[in-house]
Amino acid sequence: MRLLVLLAAALLLMAVHAQAQVYAPYDGYNEYDGYGYDDPYSPYPPPPYYEPEPGYREPFPERRERSTRVGGTIVIATREHTLIYTTSAGEQFAYPIAVGREGKQWYGITRVVSKRLHPEWRPTASMRQKNPRLPAVVKPGPANPLGTRAIYLADGLLRIHGTNDPSSIGTNASSGCFRMYREDVEELYDMVQPGTRVIVQR
C-alpha cells in the first residue's frame, strides 16, 4: 500500500513539473500590455558572427549561392507590413510581417550583423519582474517566441525572427522587431548574410 502511495505521489510531481515547462504563446500577454519578448533593447546581444551548427546543411544551397554573391537589400515597408528582399541578381522575394506597436517602431538604414539558427529566448529582468512565471531562458522549440531563426540588425538592437503566434503577422504587435511566418523566415535566413543592407520605411 505504501508503495502505491509513493508511486502516485511521484507521478503527480512529474505531471506538475512537466506542466511547469510549457510556455504557451502570449500566456498573460494582455495583462502587462505585452511581454515585449522581442524587445529591441534587450541586454542580450546577438552572436558576434554567423557560424552554422556542426553538421547543418543549408536546405537551398543553389539559391543561397546565387542570391548572396554580392549582398542584396532588405526593404521593410512598415505600413504595408511587408518585407522585400532583393538579391544581388535582381530577384525579389516579398513576405508579410508583423511590425512594432505604435510608439515602438524604428525607421532608418541598418544592416544584418549576424544570424542565429534555433535561437534561445531570454526575457529581460523587467519582463520577469512583470511576470515572475517567465523562465530565465526558453530553449529552442515550439513555445519559443523567436521561432526557428533570428536575423540580428542594428548591432543587436533589432531582429527579424519567426514567431510562435502566426496570427500576429500583418499587425502592429511587437516591441520593435519584425516577425515572420516560419517558412518565410527560414527561406530569408538561407539567403541573407551579415552585411546585407536593411532599409526600414514608414
Can you summarize this structure?
This protein is α/β, with parallel strands linked by helices and 202 residues long. Helices cover 21% and strands 24% of the residues.
Structure overview:
The chain is α/β, with parallel strands linked by helices and 202 residues long. The protein has four helices and nine strands. Strands 1-2-3-8-6-5-4-9 form an eight-stranded mixed barrel. It is elongated and about 75 Å long. The relative contact order is 0.23. Residues 15-36 and 49-70 have low confidence and may be disordered.
How do the helices and strands line up, and which of them pair or pack?
Layout: H1 2-20, H2 61-67, E1 73-77, E2 82-86, E3 92-100, E4 108-117, H3 125-130, E5 149-153, E6 158-161, E7 172-174, E8 178-180, H4 182-191, E9 197-201
Parallel strand pairs: 1-9, 3-7, 6-8
Antiparallel strand pairs: 1-2, 2-3, 3-8, 4-5, 4-9, 5-6
